[in-house]
Design goal:
- Helices cover 37% and strands 21% of the residues.
- It is built from 13 helices and 16 strands.
- Helix 5 packs across helix 12, helix 7 packs across helix 10 and helix 11 (353-368) packs across helix 12.
- The chain is globular and about 60 Å long.
Length: 465
């Protein structure tokens, strides 16, 4: 692969620079779980011929040109620096290998990638776990792109397991139908007033939360400096999408409302278990949003097309959402968490705070520089109690070179938060992944509380356990 001239190198996006700065270094960790042991996968050939050509950033390093601008410069890729085949002790039980896998996953998630090489790694784990016969771990720097871009890249390497000639399909991301334009002048006027008020309120609160107002210290937020350098644990659980849809239909809300309500309820149950006073503590979730106006994943070619509306890169923003407080009424009626989530999300939709926040970051970048914005974003995460992100996966089973994919999930690493919650759908299953600060959060207890919250909400909504 030839080196590109520096002046031809692609500039690094502002968000890419924020995520790879002196104060922030964020990674996306993705895991593919296979139904069968990895056999004759031709791993290096697949990575060289399929994965790396997807995007020039997979064969580029971040450099600073003579004008001080950061750019992507293509370099030769030595696969031995990026592809790893860890060796675990032989002859162990599945439970033992499961522990080895999760210890390894947590360990590599914390390691810094060398800035002198392209910012990705792939780890081939040909040992069984409780969830799979073998696994592949992708570690990708967030500067390369956001979850949408990187999952889109991953999916371009995979085929439908039942018929590779057919395309993968995804649950609709189409928003609900807009209200009729024939609604009365007063209703439109009322909506505009509400939108203006919510925008001012949300935008002002967002600025305060990013700077001077921090959440209470609770069992999910240590609030300590240097949290991003502490060991982490990564655990996950499965929920039935059919059950989520049943709750949605019974309550007349969205799937997003249901998932958010379950996560918030489970979080508060854990907080109550660990410290009774924290059930009413001020806690906020930072919800990451994909700002593309699109439905489903586009092809890689479309993503790389600068005229396409689903551009490759970091097209994300964030929303501060208060975690509802727990009281006796909510304990006896867990559906209140769904309604609270529904009302809060509906209110946030009547606000332009997300767009204004993006404009503010752009202005701050121009006047104060990229490092100042990175510090601003770090403060935003540090002052919150949890980071929540979600991605939509395909509805059909996938395979990689005739290796059927049993499951997949992702998480974020390198941030200063004590708790990150990642949600991904795949073939009728909703996978919720918890990245927690080790020895501070009891991840197994939190997982149990999330599962209990799901069962209690399902029972309350449908009458079935």
């Amino acid at each position: 692969m030839e080196h590109l001239k520096e002046e031809q190198a692609e500039p690094v996006s502002p968000m890419g620079q924020y995520f790879n700065s002196s104060v922030l270094c964020i990674y996306i960790i993705g895991v593919l779980e296979f139904e069968v042991p990895i056999h004759d996968l031709q791993t290096l050939a697949l990575i060289k011929d399929v994965f790396i050509p997807i995007n020039p950033r997979f064969s580029s390093v971040m450099i600073q040109d003579k004008d001080g601008e950061k750019r992507w410069k293509q370099v030769d890729v030595n696969l031995k620096d990026h592809v790893h085949f860890p060796i675990f002790p032989s002859g162990k039980t599945v439970e033992s290998y499961d522990k080895h896998f999760h210890d390894y996953l947590s360990s590599i998630a914390m390691e810094q990638l060398s800035q002198s090489r392209p910012l990705w790694e792939i780890h081939i784990i040909n040992y069984p776990t409780n969830d799979a016969s073998s696994s592949v771990i992708f570690k990708l720097h967030h500067a390369l792109g956001d979850g949408y871009s990187l999952v889109g890249a991953l999916l371009s390497c995979l085929q439908r397991a039942d018929d590779p000639s057919l395309p993968l399909s995804f649950p609709s991301l189409r928003p609900s139908k807009p209200e009729s334009s024939t609604k009365s002048f007063w209703r439109r006027f009322s909506w505009m007033l509400s939108s203006a008020f919510n925008t001012v309120s949300d935008f002002g609160w967002s600025i305060l939360k990013s700077s001077i107002i921090s959440d209470d210290k609770t069992p999910i937020r240590s609030g300590d400096e240097g949290t991003e350098f502490r060991p982490i644990s990564i655990t996950n659980m499965d929920f039935s999408i059919d059950h989520v849809k049943e709750i949605k239909s019974r309550l007349g809300v969205t799937i997003n409302d249901v998932i958010t309500g379950i996560v918030f309820y489970g979080t508060r149950l854990y907080m109550q278990d660990m410290d009774l006073k924290s059930m009413t503590a001020d806690s906020t979730a930072l919800v990451l949003l994909n700002t593309r106006n699109i439905e489903g994943y586009q092809s890689i070619n479309d993503m790389l097309n600068t005229k396409a509306k689903g551009l490759w890169g970091n097209k994300i923003s964030f929303l501060h959402v208060p975690i509802p407080k727990l009281n006796q009424n909510k304990i006896s009626n867990p559906l209140d968490f769904i309604w609270d989530s529904h009302n809060e999300i509906k209110r946030k939709k009547q606000s332009l705070a997300v767009a204004l926040t993006g404009t503010l970051l752009d202005m701050e970048s121009k006047f104060r520089g990229q490092e100042a914005v990175a510090k601003h974003l770090r403060g935003t995460v540090t002052n919150s109690s949890a980071v929540i992100s979600s991605l939509v996966g395909p509805m059909q089973q996938m395979s990689l070179a005739n290796h059927p994919v049993k499951g997949l999930y992702f998480t974020l690493a390198g941030g200063p938060e004590s708790l990150a919650i990642s949600i991904m759908s795949y073939v009728g299953v909703l996978r919720v992944t918890l990245k927690t600060e080790k020895d501070f959060i009891d991840e197994q207890r939190l997982k149990y509380c999330m599962q209990s919250a799901f069962q209690m909400i399902l029972k309350a909504a449908t009458g079935n356990s």
